[in-house]
Structure to design on (336 residues):
């Protein structure tokens, strides 16, 4: 199970890094965003391959018990929050786009 | 009285001409008919073919926004053209224009604010699609507390005064359910009249699939909780 998780995480990370690199090359993404996503996904690969690092960080800040569970719990909450933010933002942009399109269609008649 | 026939169209080059040519030129009780084709960012010849019909007003949306935006655009144009009522029809040829007169009659007589054309599915539609339509009507009832037999029907007649009161925010296929929700919120009089439906292999292919059903569910819930 752990091996499958590692493979999936690495495949996803490689895909995202490749996509962000292509977007950067096409000048669709800035250099800073390219570095940010590459660093983020390289960290994900690192954690997937060496999950023990979470325990080590946990012991550094004083609590090594359940630190992996706490880490993934926090990650899950963070993902939910980001998903919600993106959904709200996309919804807002969609509404604005609809208004622009309908208003411009009305003006043409 | 002025009637606006609104036809949202997306990549309908195979059927748009025959649909437009089959529309009636005169209806009892109607002094003027305007046809509004809302081309929803089609990549084929839909716009060019529709523009070749003399009496059709073709509105080209720059990108494909979804049937909800195309329909609301049609409503706005109808208001601007000072229509007294509108009728919406699909561009895939599944609706029979002979039903238009039947649908607008209760509106001309001021008996209804909206008349929904109820498709007769028996023997024509695959069982799975019939179940899907029932489930979407059930979903509409659960979200808006209003039961209609064919909540996803694309053929409906609406008075312009009802449209002016509605606050529609839908982008895609959820527009059909949202209209019913608005009728319930505004206490509008809803009528349901059976209509003929022409099911060709083409129109069956163009219909909604189960993925659209899931999309409608999420969109209706987000509209309901005003996200």
């Amino acid at each position: 199970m752990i091996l499958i998780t590692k493979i999936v995480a690495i495949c996803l990370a490689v895909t995202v890094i490749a996509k962000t690199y292509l977007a950067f090359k096409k000048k669709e993404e800035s250099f800073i965003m390219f570095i940010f996503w590459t660093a983020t996904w390289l960290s994900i690969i690192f954690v997937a391959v060496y999950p023990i690092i979470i325990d080590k960080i946990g012991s550094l800040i004083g609590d090594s018990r359940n630190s992996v569970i706490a880490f993934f719990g926090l990650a899950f909450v963070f993902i939910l929050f980001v998903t919600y933010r993106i959904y709200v933002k996309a919804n807002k942009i969609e509404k604005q786009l609809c208004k622009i399109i309908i208003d411009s269609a009305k003006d043409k008649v | 009285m002025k009637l606006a026939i609104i036809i949202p169209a997306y990549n309908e080059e195979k059927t748009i001409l025959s649909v437009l040519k089959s529309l009636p030129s005169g209806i009892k009780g109607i002094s003027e008919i305007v046809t509004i084709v809302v081309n929803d960012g089609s990549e084929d010849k839909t716009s060019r073919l529709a523009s070749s019909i003399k009496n059709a007003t073709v509105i080209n949306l720059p990108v494909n926004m979804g049937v909800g935006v195309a329909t609301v655009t049609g409503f706005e144009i109808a208001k601007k053209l000072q229509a007294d009522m509108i009728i919406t029809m699909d561009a895939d040829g599944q609706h029979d224009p002979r039903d238009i007169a039947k649908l607008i009659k209760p509106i001309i007589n001021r008996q209804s604010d909206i008349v929904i054309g109820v498709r007769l599915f028996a023997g024509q539609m695959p069982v799975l699609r019939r179940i899907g339509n029932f489930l979407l009507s059930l979903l509409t009832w659960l979200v808006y507390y209003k039961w209609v037999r064919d909540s996803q029907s694309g053929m409906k007649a609406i008075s312009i005064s009802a449209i002016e009161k509605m606050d529609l925010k839908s982008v895609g296929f959820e527009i059909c359910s949202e209209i019913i929700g608005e009728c319930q919120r505004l206490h509008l009089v809803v009528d349901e009249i059976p209509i003929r439906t022409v099911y060709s292999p083409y129109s069956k292919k163009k219909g909604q699939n189960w993925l659209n059903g899931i999309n409608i569910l999420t969109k209706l819930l987000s509209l309901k909780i005003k996200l």
About this structure: The first strand of chain B starts at residue 2 and ends at 9. Residues 13 and 48 of chain B are 9 Å apart (CA to CA). Chain B has a mean pLDDT of 90.
